[in-house]
Every structure is written in structure tokens, then in C-alpha cells.
Write a structure and sequence with these properties.
With about 900 residues, the protein is mainly β. The chain is built from five helices and 49 strands. The strands form nine sheets. The chain has a 22-stranded antiparallel β-barrel. It has a five-stranded mixed β-sheet with strand order 8-11-12-9-10. Strands 23-22-26-29-34 form a five-stranded mixed β-sheet. The two termini are about 35 Å apart.
């Protein structure tokens, strides 16, 4: 009785609206209503109550959202209804709908045509529903920051239909990340609201992957265009599962453009997930997933080596076996303690092995290494409805990981400038990490305010590193150039044949290192509803870290706004901006731990040798002509008073609905980064000595990390997302952008250490034009087709001479008059296609019924060569020639069973 009264009160406005709509079409078999239920944070809401209510207030049908938040409910007849979705602790959402018969068209244009596209129902916390301005055919608040339609979103349904190579969701979505918005340590990855190293569940257990969902939120460290969010499925109260098998074989593939022959490659992927109630524990459920990938692949070597009678040209093209094995699984147990409190615990495991890694291009098989990576993750998550206007989400994660490299061949490493790298990888090392993460977010609503605040500890880690890299030494062989800096007197390959190296390096001393990486942050933001059509969201973030700066903290103000220009066409103007600090990862910190100080803990020597001297000052082995123990050591230090680099990011966008449920967006954005890091040898040989003598002869190279660089750039996006009609759905974007800088990052050195600012040019990631698009044609039919189109102009690269005119053993000198990043790689073009369909295997054809799926996909259908690197050394006989290419056309077939 109380439930019926509550429904009647909730439905009074909807009933009035439906009473004024056109009369219902003639009786016919209506299509089901489908969609997904989520909370304001984007997490799905399982077991939500869903009622389909007629205009007279009677409940025509009832259902609960499944474990992945999805629902499908069939109306008893065509006509006007109201969909009512409720869940304790959240506001009830009512959505007027018109269900049309297959041949009829609903006359109420402001109502949802649910048989055309699924709904996304977002349940606000209890009081929020009274303060939002929703559009006519769903519950979305057009002014909310996380309703930005410039986002790229891949749903669980998309994952089943799109051409995704090897089920690699992160790889597929990375095409939509913006390199300018990522940090030195890479783009951000958020899994269920927590920063992570990887997706901790298999692909079939993923509910959604999204980029740029809330571009300027203070909640996140990165701008929206620089991070990827993965939302996993929840454990369900009914048994569901999905198992996939993917297969590739060289017999179906094209041949790599640089390979001497087509090698016998094959890949097998076994993947799946299952969820359901835990029968012996009431109100408890589980989610389990696994992924096993067995890849027998080959790297292609394209190098110039010493000519032989069998190979008089000295051109080497070879296939090198590089197999990998990856095993992952996860297990989650969830429990609903009360209507207001739920929690889950999850364990995730990964073990990856790769043989002959690091080979390909100009790197020979002898310079390969084997790698094993292992990671364990234990996560506890709690959702609490603290009051009708406040919810709290807490996640605690413990991680253990290690990575072990072993040389395939133990010998000194050989680098012949512009021709080949061989000898050995010199990569023996073992790194281990124990890390603790904490994320706590509270959402609170009062009046016109929707407030989020919280704190995070993404890294509170103890790391250890056993460093046996370069323990047998490395030789560099470079050309001898005439005084004009162009004419080659003796090639690098000839000096290699004659055992005349131009540089030598060696690591020795302490091997085991321990260090700590600590990062913490806090934020607060308030989405303030100025009016039903306008909201502004100011926010403030604070971050701290324990390394790479004397000033280790910073405040980051952020702000965004949204104005609904026209509710009928859903035309919305959005904008925002903020400050973002750089994030580095552990590499620079480890360099300081090993090499900082007057007496570095790890002894490293780097010395220039003169192959033109009589006799040459270098030889092989080096001990025959040089006292290595007496060579001055190298050091690494941080510039005094260094501070963390930061970016200004800001932009505007305007979006408008197209067709049934699609949106087109035009957005412009700019960024400025202040104090980018670079490296500088502050003990480089001086110009006064003809670049032969270092200022402090007690040391070799002294690497100083300096926050002295600058970067600027702008971009323009034209994007599309959604379902245009029943024949076409998808998303994608065209981007024009340009970025310029005077450094390529913390590990980059200028060519002349005494002119470090003379390097302004295009940024190394600058690609003027990019297109990325995923589309599905007639997705609900057996005669469907899905495609992906990706293309971009080439990245820039720097031409070098291969010689060392500045005597610093960096070998990054450019020909006279040639700027940094002055040349570009060829453009990239990729077309991917997939057909697939799930066939019922019983008489039951509902979505939950058992189905068997078959699919076939083709990647790089056009078999475009897509060069990924070229020989950049002007003194080499192979200068400008392509040394590596992207994979050729490959065919992937799959089989799926779901229940």
C-alpha cells in the first residue's frame, strides 16, 4: 500500500504529461526497454527496483537491475508509461517513455524512444533529484561536469561488438588519449575510482572504459584527456557468465613488410568471468575472472652489419622468436550488510613471461633479454550511505610486484652508430615493490550544492632494486667526420671492424638499493546550480610527494562550468581550466638513489675515446689500453631549489544532440607547461678546450636534472558519440593540434651542454592531425559490421650525425643548421573490421538466456606499412630507411559462450 502511494505521488507529473500525448498506436509486439543503472560516481547499481507504470498508476511490470547494473523489461503493450527506478539511499528517478509498435512512431517528441536506444539511469543521492535540470528523455543532468559528451566511452556491449585486438581494452582506448595531457610517468589509469598499474579484472568483467569523462575535476590528478577510467562489473545476485576464446595464426595473416619471410606466429587467448550469489552466505555474491594469453610471435630485425661472402651488402633482415605467456585472474566477494552499507574484497593476480625481449629494428637477437613480471593486488572497498544526502566510498589496496630481467647473452654491449646494437642487452636487474594505496571520497548534497571531497595516497611504497645492468661494459663505435661535419672519413662500421671504439661505459660497485616513493593528495569541489540551466564547479586540489623537488607540494585550483543553451536540442556550452602538476614514476628517483652524492653508491664510468689518435686511445677489450679502475665516475644530482613542473590546461566546447541519441561536439583547448625537466651534463668538456677537457677532472659526466624547460600548444577536436539511428552507433573524433617545446623530458640532453635553450621546436609527440573512430552498423542484426578507423600524421624525429663533436659521449649532435625534431615519420593509417553474432542455443531468446557467439575480425585491413621508426643517423649508409613497421594485416577469430 505504501509503495503504491509513493509511486502515485512520484508519477503525478508524468501521468499528466502522458495524458496529453498522442493516442497509443495499434496493438503490436513492443520492443523491450533496456538500459543500465549507475550512481553519481559512475559505479553501476545492482538490484535496483525498476517499475514500468501505466498512466493510471498501475504497475505494468517490475524488475531488478542485474549484477552489472543492466536491465531489460518488456511492456505489455505499446503506449505511454513511466519508468520508475529506486534504490535505498538514492533519489527515485522517473522517466516518461512512449513505447511504439514496430510500425508506429511515437508522437511525443520530448519522450524517450526506448526501443531505439538503451537508457543510462543515474540515481542521485536522495535530495539531489530536486535540484537538477534533466533533459526530456533521460535522467541526465546536462549541467553536470561528468555528463561531458566530448568523452570517449566504451561500454560492456561495445566490448562484445567492436574490433578490439587481443581483447586489449586499454590499447584500444589509448588512441583517444591526448599526449599533451599525460604526465612524464605516462597517462593515468583509474580502476573503480582507484589509481592502478593495470586493469585488475579480465575484459568480460569490465562494465565501461572512458576518457575525458570530467575534464577539469579536482578529484583527479590528470586532466580528463590524459587519464583512462575503468569501471568493473559488480558481483550479481543471479548467476551469469561469459567465456571467450580468441585465435590468430600466421596462415591467415599478411607478411610484415620488413620480414624476410612469414614466420609461424600464433596467439591463443582464453578469457572469461562469472558472477552470482554465494549460496552459503545470504546477501553475498562473487565475481571471478581469468585471462590466459599464449603468444608465439616474432620480432623483425633490420640492421646493417659487417659484410660477409654470404651477405656482401651487410643488410640483415631476420625473424627472431619472442614468445610471451600471460596469466591473470581475480576473485571478488561482496556483501550487503544493510540497505546503507555494502563492501567487497578482491584479490588479483598476474604473471607474465617474455622471451627475447628488446629485439627488433636495429637491435640484434644477441642483445635480447628475458623478463618475468608478477603482481598481486588485494583490495577492500566499502560503500556507505551516511545520510539521505551523503555517501562515502573508501578503497584500500595492497600491492606486491616484481620484475626480473635476465640477459640472453652475457657479453659487452655493442652500439654501432646508425647500424646496429648487439653484443648483449646488459639488462640484468630485479625490481620489487610493496605499495599501499588509499582512496576516500565523500559526496554530499545540500540545496544547490553537490560537494565532493576526499583524500588519496596513490603511492606509499617501499621499493628495492638489484642493479646488475652494464656490469660487463658497453662500447660505442661512431664515425670519423671531416671538419665540415658531414663528409664521412671512416664509418662507424669500419671503426667497429678495426676495434676502435669512441666511448666506453661500465657500472660497478653497490648492487642492492632500497628507497621509498610517497605521494599523497586531497581535494574538494562544489557543483553549484546557479540556475536549472547553468552550473559552475570550482575545486581545489593539494598534492605532495617526497622526491624530485625542494618544494614538494602544490595547490591546484580547478574550475568548470556548463550552460544549457537549448534543452530541446541538448545544446550545451562547457568550459573550464586548472593547474596540473607533473607525475614522474620511480625512474628518476632510482637514478638519484644510485648515483647522487660525492661518492655515488653505484659506480658508473663514461669516457670518450679518440679512434683518430695514433695509436687510438680506445681498444677492445678496453683493459688492454685503459685503466678502467682509474676512470672518473659519473654522478646524478637534482638542481637546487627545484620545483615540480606544472601545466595550465583550459578549454571550451559546445555540444548538440544529433538523431535519436547522439551528440556532436566541437572543443578547443590549450596548455602551457612551466619548468619541464631536462638533463644537463654540468661537467661537460668546455668550448675553450675544444670540447676535450671537463671542468672537474675528478668526475666524468655529472647529470643535473633541471626544471628549466617550457612547452605550449593548442588543439581543436570535432567529435561524435552515440546512436544516430537503428543502423549506426559509435564514437570518434578528429583532432588538429600543435605542440612545441625546448625539451623532450627528464631523460633528454641538449646537443650542446653550453647552449641548452637552443632547442625550441615541435614536441616529440606532436601529430598535427589525428582521426580515431569506432562504429557499429546494424548492431542488433546477424548482418552486422563493426569497424575502427585510426589515422594520424607522423611524429617528428631528430637527425643526428652519429659523432661526438662535443666530447660528452652523448652522440646526439645534429648536422649544422638542422633543428631538433625537424623531420617526420610517415603517416599512420589503420582500418579494422569485425563481424560477430551471439546465437541462442535454447528456445529462450531473452538476454539472460545461454548463447553461443562467433566472430571474425581483420586488423589493418588495408595492409598499410605504417613505418614506426627510421634510421636517424646521417652518417650511416642506411640513413632515412625504415627500420621498423607496425604489424601487417592480421585475422582474429573468436568464440563466446555466455549465460
Amino acid at each position: 500500500m505504501l509503495r503504491s502511494l509513493a509511486l502515485a505521488l512520484a508519477l503525478f507529473p508524468a501521468a499528466a504529461l502522458a495524458a496529453n500525448s498522442a493516442s497509443a498506436p495499434a496493438p503490436a509486439s513492443p520492443a523491450p526497454i533496456s538500459g543500465v543503472v549507475a550512481n553519481p560516481s559512475g559505479a553501476i547499481v545492482p538490484n535496483a527496483q525498476i517499475d514500468l507504470v501505466e498512466t493510471n498508476g498501475n504497475i505494468a511490470a517490475s524488475f531488478h537491475s542485474s549484477g552489472d547494473g543492466s536491465f531489460q523489461i518488456v511492456a505489455p503493450h505499446p503506449g505511454s508509461f513511466t519508468l520508475v527506478v529506486s534504490e535505498p539511499g538514492f533519489g527515485t528517478v522517473t522517466t516518461p517513455v512512449v513505447i511504439a509498435a514496430p510500425a508506429a512512431v511515437a508522437s511525443a517528441s520530448a519522450l524517450a524512444h526506448l526501443n531505439a536506444a538503451p537508457l543510462k539511469i543515474v540515481l542521485p543521492i536522495a535530495a539531489l533529484s530536486t535540484n537538477v535540470h534533466v533533459n526530456a528523455d533521460s535522467d541526465e543532468d546536462l549541467t553536470a561536469g561528468d555528463e561531458n559528451h566530448d568523452a570517449s566511452v566504451m561500454t560492456a556491449g561495445d566490448i562484445k561488438q567492436l574490433p578490439i585486438f587481443d581483447n586489449d581494452l586499454q590499447g584500444a582506448m589509448s588512441a583517444f588519449l591526448d599526449d599533451s595531457a599525460t604526465a612524464t610517468g605516462g597517462s593515468g589509469l583509474i580502476v573503480d575510482g582507484v589509481e592502478a598499474n593495470r586493469a585488475t579484472v579480465s575484459p568480460s568483467a569490465v562494465q565501461e572504459v572512458r576518457i575525458n569523462q570530467d575534464p577539469y575535476s579536482a578529484q583527479y590528478y590528470w586532466p580528463g584527456r590524459g587519464q583512462m577510467e575503468i569501471v568493473t562489473k559488480s558481483a550479481a545476485d543471479a548467476y551469469h557468465g561469459q567465456f571467450n576464446f580468441l585465435f590468430r595464426d600466421a596462415a591467415l595473416n599478411a607478411q610484415n613488410a620488413l620480414a624476410p619471410s612469414k614466420p609461424p606466429e600464433q596467439r591463443r587467448i582464453y578469457e572469461g568471468s562469472a558472477t552470482g550469489p554465494i549460496f552459503f552466505a545470504p546477501k553475498s555474491s562473487f565475481l571471478a575472472s581469468f585471462n590466459r594469453a599464449e603468444e608465439d610471435v616474432f620480432a623483425v630485425v633490420t640492421a646493417l652489419i659487417v659484410p660477409t661472402p654470404d651477405n656482401p651488402d651487410g643488410v640483415l633482415a631476420a625473424n627472431v622468436s619472442a614468445p610471451t605467456r600471460d596469466t591473470e585472474f581475480s576473485a571478488r566477494a561482496a556483501h550487503q550488510f544493510t540497505d546503507r552499507h555494502s563492501a567487497y574484497a578482491q584479490y588479483s593476480y598476474e604473471d607474465w613471461n617474455g622471451q627475447n625481449q628488446g629485439v627488433g629494428g636495429q637491435t640484434l637477437a644477441e642483445a635480447a633479454y628475458n623478463n618475468r613480471y608478477h603482481e598481486d593486488d588485494l583490495m577492500f572497498h566499502v560503500d556507505s550511505t551516511l545520510s539521505p544526502v551523503m555517501i562515502n566510498q573508501v578503497s584500500v589496496v595492497g600491492e606486491h610486484a616484481f620484475s626480473h630481467n635476465q640477459n640472453v647473452n652475457n657479453a659487452p654491449r655493442i652500439y654501432v652508430s646508425g647500424d646496429f646494437t648487439g653484443g648483449s642487452a646488459q639488462a640484468n636487474a630485479l625490481s620489487t615493490e610493496y605499495n599501499f594505496r588509499l582512496f576516500d571520497v565523500i559526496q554530499w548534497n545540500r540545496g544547490r550544492h553537490f560537494v565532493k571531497f576526499g583524500a588519496s595516497i596513490p603511492h606509499f611504497s617501499r621499493r628495492a632494486y638489484d642493479d646488475n645492468t652494464n656490469e660487463l661494459g658497453s662500447y660505442t663505435f661512431s664515425p670519423i667526420l671531416a671538419p665540415d661535419g658531414v663528409t664521412v672519413l671512416t664509418s662507424a662500421l669500419e671503426n667497429y671492424q678495426n676495434n676502435r671504439p669512441s666511448a666506453y661505459s661500465l657500472n660497478s660497485g653497490q648492487v642492492h638499493f632500497t628507497y621509498h616513493q610517497q605521494e599523497m593528495g586531497a581535494f574538494i569541489q562544489d557543483q553549484f546550480k546557479v540556475s536549472p540551466r547553468f552550473s559552475i564547479t570550482p575545486g581545489l586540489r593539494y598534492d605532495w610527494q617526497n622526491f624530485l623537488a625542494d618544494k614538494r607540494l602544490g595547490f591546484s585550483p580547478r574550475v568548470s562550468f556548463a550552460y544549457v543553451i537549448d534543452p530541446q536540442s541538448k545544446t550545451v556550452l562547457r568550459g573550464g581550466g586548472g593547474i596540473y602538476y607533473d607525475r614522474f614514476g620511480s625512474g628518476p628517483l632510482l637514478d638519484l638513489v644510485r648515483y647522487e652524492g660525492v661518492e655515488p653508491r653505484r659506480r658508473a664510468v663514461v669516457t670518450s675515446l679518440d679512434p683518430t689518435a695514433a695509436p687510438p686511445t680506445g681498444c677492445v677489450p678496453i683493459g688492454n689500453c685503459v685503466d678502467v679502475a682509474a676512470l672518473p665516475v659519473a654522478r646524478t644530482e637534482l638542481q637546487s631549489n627545484a620545483r615540480i613542473p606544472y601545466q595550465y590546461n583550459y578549454g571550451l566546447s559546445i555540444e548538440r544532440q544529433l538523431g535519436e541519441k547522439a551528440t556532436a561536439t566541437i572543443s578547443g583547448y590549450s596548455m602551457r607547461e612551466i619548468g619541464m625537466f631536462r638533463s644537463l651534463d654540468i661537467n661537460a668538456p668546455t668550448p675553450q678546450s675544444g670540447y676535450t677537457l671537463r671542468p672537474d677532472s675528478n668526475y666524468g659526466r655529472i647529470r643535473q636534472m633541471q626544471p628549466a624547460g617550457f612547452m605550449t600548444g593548442s588543439g581543436l577536436d570535432v567529435s561524435y558519440r552515440g546512436r544516430l539511428d537503428k543502423w549506426f552507433t559509435g564514437w570518434g573524433r578528429y583532432t588538429w593540434s600543435h605542440y612545441a617545446s625546448n625539451t623532450d623530458g627528464i631523460g633528454w640532453y641538449p646537443q650542446n651542454q653550453y647552449a641548452p635553450n637552443d632547442n625550441w621546436s615541435d614536441a616529440s609527440f606532436d601529430r598535427r592531425q589525428r582521426i580515431g573512430m569506432y562504429a557499429m552498423f546494424h548492431p542488433d542484426s546477424v548482418f552486422n559490421l563493426a569497424g575502427g578507423i585510426f589515422s594520424n600524421s607522423g611524429r617528428p624525429y631528430t637527425v643526428t650525425t652519429g659523432a661526438d663533436p662535443y666530447g660528452d659521449s652523448l652522440y646526439n649532435a645534429r648536422p649544422d643548421g638542422v633543428a631538433r625534431n625537424s623531420q617526420r615519420l610517415p603517416s599512420y593509417v589503420d582500418l579494422d573490421l569485425r563481424w560477430g553474432h551471439d546465437f541462442p542455443i535454447t528456445g529462450d531468446k531473452s538476454d539472460d538466456a545461454p548463447r553461443l557467439g562467433l566472430s571474425a575480425g581483420a586488423f589493418n585491413v588495408l595492409n598499410h606499412q605504417n613505418p614506426s621508426w627510421v634510421n636517424t643517423v646521417a652518417s650511416s649508409s642506411g640513413f632515412g630507411e625504415v627500420t621498423s613497421v607496425a604489424p601487417p594485416r592480421r585475422i582474429q577469430i573468436g568464440m563466446r559462450f555466455q549465460f
